Amino acid sequence: MQRQLAALSPENLDLIETVARTGSMAAAARELGLVPSALTYRVRQVEDALDVLLFDRSSRRARLTPAGTELLRAGEHLLLELDAVAQRVRRVATGWEPELTIAADALIARSTLFELCEAFYALGAPTRLRLRAETLSGTWEALLNGQADLALGVPTDLAPSSGLSLQEMGSVDFVFAVAPHHPLASAKEPLDSEEIKRHRAVAAADSSQRGRGVTVNLLPGQDVLTVATMQHKLEAQLRGLGCGWLPLPLARPYLDAGRLVAKPVSQPRRNIRVGYVWRAGSGEGRALAWWLAQVEQPRTRLALLENHHQ
């Protein structure tokens, strides 16, 4: 067991990865600054310790065997786990997380989010920030999958899972809007579903990675232009490429400037309540505590939902 553990050291895993990537022991030795014979010996030691062949040596190019491929795949997870342990140790020692990841839904005003980042960096904290832009259920999924520590703009009708805490931020009104030159701009009001269905909708893709995301306000049989983000959806509707619902705070400047036209519809006006979610009871660090304290302030919550200025 001792030999096997030694064989799975970060240095050995890096050595195996380099041989696989460069395609030969000689090339890997040059990249690592080793004598070829020394590198070959270390590879043999790893293979002996694990009792497997990691490379197919029947050709001139060093190719991974299935066992070698699995070792690199599992080794990557092992290195991530080792890094996570080291991060947790440093977190306990200092109280500051090495990294804090924030998943922000498309409904969140980026200008306010960056203002909060500026205030955080002014603290001189050692925590690195990572921001993720998500849409619809992708925001929730990022937290559930451990890819985020804090999620902003999560619909509150999604019940929090065990170990997660959810607090409301407020509500967001949506407006059905089209460009002034779009055919629906001059159509009789209120627009009914049959009239809307005859025109292309613009939809922001759900950023969920599970293959089946959330689809909102699309009519059966309606042509759809799917775009990556809410900003892309806004741009497409400004160009008259389609129609659809937009968050009122995002659309308001363009409505005021006459670049978009709000159209009353026969279906109820859309309004969703959103909140922020984080992992509770896991010994939250000082960085997460600071962000939670900011979002708890009513003015900050309002700004995160309303300040969509360019």
Automatic annotation (TrEMBL):
GO terms for molecular function: DNA-binding transcription factor activity; transcription cis-regulatory region binding. The keyword Transcription regulation applies. Residues 8-65 form the HTH lysR-type domain. Coiled coil: none annotated. It comes from the Bacteria. The keyword Acyltransferase does not apply. It holds the Pfam family HTH_1. InterPro entries: LysR_HTH_N, LysR_subst-bd, WH-like_DNA-bd_sf, WH_DNA-bd_sf. Keywords: DNA-binding, Transcription, Transcription regulation. Belongs to the LysR transcriptional regulatory family. This is LysR family transcriptional regulator. It comes from Malikia spinosa.
